[in-house]
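Let us work through a complete example step by step.
Step 1: write down the sequence.
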Amino acid sequence: MKILPNIGILMPGDMGHGCGKVLLDNNFKVFTCLSKRSERTKMLSQKSGITDTDNIQNLLNEVDIILSILPPEFAITQAKFVNDAIIKSNISKVITYVDCNAISPKTSIKIGRLLSPKNFNFVDGGIIGLNPIIENGKTRLYVSGKHADKLKVLDGKGIVVKNIGHEIGKASAMKMVYASATKGTFALHAAVITASRKLNLFEEYVDELKYSKPNILEAMEKMVPKIPLDADRWKAEMREIANTYKEINITPKFHQGAEDIMELANKTPIARETRQSFDSSRTLLDSVNMYVEASKK
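Step 2: predict the structure and record it as tokens.
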């Protein structure tokens, strides 16, 4: 019987705990380090059954693969932290480090270069889809780089692994392009519906959408109230997308604007809620009124 690699999840937040849970359900041993993490992250990790190693050295001793899953602004800092920890230790094995964060190709390349090749095989990654628990095994993990085949062992084990080549940055680029359309559209919808309210056209605009573009109204009703739940970390993601576009000489201004809308959403009272405490009875108008008030600050 083939021995499965041990998996490290850094960190088991909204997405990470779901990845850990489905891998545990598929007989992998999954570890994390909860030192200095929030109470909510600790709760999600414990609920999923992920083993806390107490410190990073213990985690490095246990794992064969690390999945880095956290807000994009911390991706480089975490990679440096893990790299420094293994250099200071007596650990001699080589660990596969997969950066799964919403970062630009340029940022991914930078992370690959700062990890010691003596201690790490670096794989560029990008997660597309919802938490694997919600997606029922259909969440996609795009990977690229010369060591990407090492992730094949996870394919079909609660997530779908898609290897798209040997180039570091390609998987991150896939995430950037995809999220630029999805979350960029969420931001545009929030801006438009908030503008309609500030221009005293909310009812008329909604009526017109009901008549001519009901799919847009449906999308607004679904996502505009929920954007604030993720807006704090989506701000940095919009920045990474803007940087990606700028690198290929396409205007970054769409997503610079989207970052501003995420900042606005993050100022609403909804941003203090979580997915578990979110008030699902709140109407689109209720939510838009909060955006309007936040825009006055």
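Step 3: interpret the result. The radius of gyration is 20 Å.
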